[in-house]
Amino acid sequence: MSGRTPTPTRAAVLDRLDRVTDPELDRSIVELEYVERVEVDPPRVSVRIALPTAWCSPAFAWMMASDAREETLALDGVEAVRVELVDHMHEREINEGVNGGLDFETVFEDATEGVEAIRAVLDDKARLARQHGAVEALLDAGVRPEQIARLRRGDVTLDAEPDRAAISLDGDALVVFVPREPLARYVEKATDVGIVEEPDDRLFATPEGDPLTAESFDLVHRRARLARTNMTGQGTVCDGLRRARYGGAREATETSD
Questions:
Q1: In whole angstroms, what is the distance from residue 109 CA to residue 32 CA?
Q2: What is the pLDDT of residue 34?
Q3: Computed over its alpha carbons, how large is the radius of gyration of the chain?
Q4: Nearest residue to 34 via CA among 180, 225, 183, 242
Q5: pTM, entire model
Q6: Where are the beta strands (DSSP E) in 68-151?
Q7: How sure is the predictor about 244, in pLDDT bands with cuts at 50, 70 and 90?
Q8: For residues 208 and 218, what is the distance between their CA atoms, to the nearest angstrom?
Q9: Which of 45, 56, 128, 154 lies 20 to 30 A from 176 at CA?
Q10: Which DSSP symbol is given to 79?
Q11: How far apart are CA 242 and CA 206, in angstroms?
């Protein structure tokens, strides 16, 4: 082993930023083309972010800027990160606060809610929207609602095959395979919000966090579909606003050393 510190690359920074989501849309800020520029000058990195509107919620903008800084700082070989939010009505406060290590509540003293409380509400909505995608995949595979309601975390093997997850049904009497992506996305978020922590935990839940039952399946699935539809619709609006503001032909991610 040489013991040398890895040199961060622009690709590696973008890979870390891909883990940062718009909390309202539950989609990557890289996928949404919010990342305008990445500059790498080891061990320093600068990231510039532009949102679809100048009036995007300060709390949402704060989450994305602070998450981008945290993810980039976690990269080997990076010792200092500056995140620059541009074209936002609160860019000065957010840039100074995030890069200065301040709390949202310290910078925005008039905020009625703390940023983590807002994040928790949005994470619950994202979990419900992802649940709809996972349940749809199971229904498409022929799994019945009552079987879905009985599933526990330990019944799902996400890495059974490269693109498919294995689902054990009825006490391992039957195994079905479904597309991995919707199940993996759901399990990731359900784990983040504490719905599933142990193998025996029920896999799916109501919007309130109670275990899904066969009796509540239809109502919960309709509410999950509504959550997913709202996020998809809001995402379409934001995409239209971004393209109207910056132009559809604009290069989404410019990088330079």
A1: 30
A2: 94
A3: 20
A4: 242
A5: 0.86
A6: 80-86
A7: confident
A8: 15
A9: 128
A10: -
A11: 34
**CA gap 220, 24 in Å, rounded:** 21
156/184 Cα distance (integer angstroms): 9
Those residues with Cβ within 8 angstroms of residue 203's Cβ, 6 or more apart along the chain or in another chain: 151, 152, 153, 155, 156, 187, 190, 196, 212
Peptide bond before 43: cis, by omega within 30 degrees of 0? yes
Tokens coding 127: 């979990």
**Segment 135-159 mean pLDDT:** 96
Using a pLDDT cut of 90, give the percent of the chain over it: 80
Among 95, 37, 15, 102, which Cα is nearest to 61's? Answer: 95
pLDDT band for position 252 (cuts 50, 70, 90): very low
Tokens of 157: 């093997």
Give me the phi and psi of 169, to 5 degrees please.
-120, 150
The two three-digit tokens of residue 237, written as one number: 């609006």
Spatial contact of 128 and 186, defined as CB atoms under 8 Å apart: no
Residue range 156-183, pLDDT digits in tens: 999 878 899 999 998 778 999 999 999 9
pLDDT, residue 239, reads: 83
Question: pLDDT digits over 29-65, tens only?
Answer: 999 999 999 999 999 999 999 999 998 999 999 999 9
CA separation for the pair 88, 111 (Å, rounded) = 17
Of 103, 93, 65, the closest CA to residue 81 belongs to 65
- What number of helices (H) and strands (E) belong to the chain? 8, 9
| Angstrom distance (rounded) from CA 21 to CA 18 | 8
Say if residues 14 and 35 touch (Cβ distance below 8 Å). yes
- Minimal CA–CA distance to 39: which of 8, 74, 4? 8
What length does the chain have? 257
